[in-house]
Amino acid sequence: MFPALIGTVVIAGLVGYLSERTGFTRNGILQSVIICVGGAFLFYFVRIMFGVSFGPPGMDAILSSVGALVIVPTHWRPRR
């Protein structure tokens, strides 16, 4: 269980970093990483408590990180 948690955090951090570098979001690198890690943590614990899953833990981490980035409204703010 602990290696899956560490892997979830690492994958979520990478997704946050890459989303900023590719231009998918314009939140800032640190903010995007925090959003992704928060979303991945939330879904990780939902997976443990309720058994909800999209597949392997890595796929869950990627989908929950991207989902958190899409839900956070800063994605749609006007461009400067």
Characterize the quaternary organization of these chains.
single chain
Number of helices: 3
* Helix and strand sequence: HHH
> How would you characterize the largest beta sheet?
none
Please compute the radius of gyration using only Cα atoms. 13 Å
Number of strands: 0
Which percent range describes the beta-strand content?
under 5%
Estimate the helix proportion, in percent. over 70%
Q: Name the structural class.
A: mainly alpha
**What distance separates the N and C termini?**
43 Å
Low-confidence stretches: none
The shape is elongated
Total domain modules: 1
Average pLDDT, all residues: 88
Would you write up a description of this structure?
The chain is mostly helical. The chain has one domain (11-71). The chain has helices at 2-22, 29-50, 57-71.
Descriptive key words:
80 residues; 3 helices; elongated
